[in-house]
Amino acid sequence: MEQWKIAAEIYNQVLLKLSDISYAGVEIKVVVNDICQCMVDKSGQRIIVDEKQYEQPAVYELSIQVVFEGCDTGSLLQAYGEVAVLFKDEPDLTIEKCNWHGSPGDTIYLEPVIRHVDCNKVNFFDGKYRFELGYKTEFSINSQKATGFKRVEKRDIHGVVKK
Questions:
Q1: Which end of the chain is more exposed for a tag (fewer CB within 10 A), N or C?
Q2: Start-to-end C-alpha separation, the chain
Q3: Nearest-CA neighbor of 80 among 71, 67, 90?
């Protein structure tokens, strides 16, 4: 998979996991709230893969909300609970060939967004109740620009110790 497709694939994997959850009168949507680069490598370090040299991967963070809308609070809370348990038990998303240089894994993990209850929040809009579950994940995008790399020849170094 091309590196620039990772964010879209994360979104698609979340949709796929939620596709079997259905409650009468409940609409479940997935919304990407934000995406940003959260780490910059200023050390100048490089990664060596297959005798080629690459810059460090850029680390990104993606924020996703699962939104529940409907008129029946009981059904909404059941759907909310089922999704919460699903991502509690199975927070991993398998994204083929998304791994950064040198990493053997294809797994990205969703973490719940931890926050305090907002007692002043209004969850009723246009005749429907609305609840949200927030998740975030980090992923890396590799540099596609490689430069040549030669291994240094191993030599014995001898020196004279002065007294």
A1: C
A2: 61
A3: 67
What is the spatial distance between Cα 67 and Cα 134, in angstroms, rounded to a whole number?
9
User: What does the pLDDT look like over 12-40, one tens digit per residue?
Assistant: 999 999 999 999 999 999 999 999 888 77
- Residue 100 has a CB neighbour count (10 Å cut-off) of 19
Tokens of 145: 């620009």
Q: How far is CA 32 from CA 12, 90, 106, 108, 127, in A?
A: 11, 20, 21, 16, 24
Residue 15 neighbours by CB under 8 Å, 6+ apart: 30
DSSP E strand boundaries for the chain: 26-39, 46-49, 52-55, 58-70, 92-94, 107-109, 111-112, 124-125, 128-141, 147-148
Phi, psi (5° rounding) for residue 60? -120, 155
The pTM score is 0.75
Q: Which domains does the chain have, with CATH numbers?
A: 3-147 (3.30.2000.30)
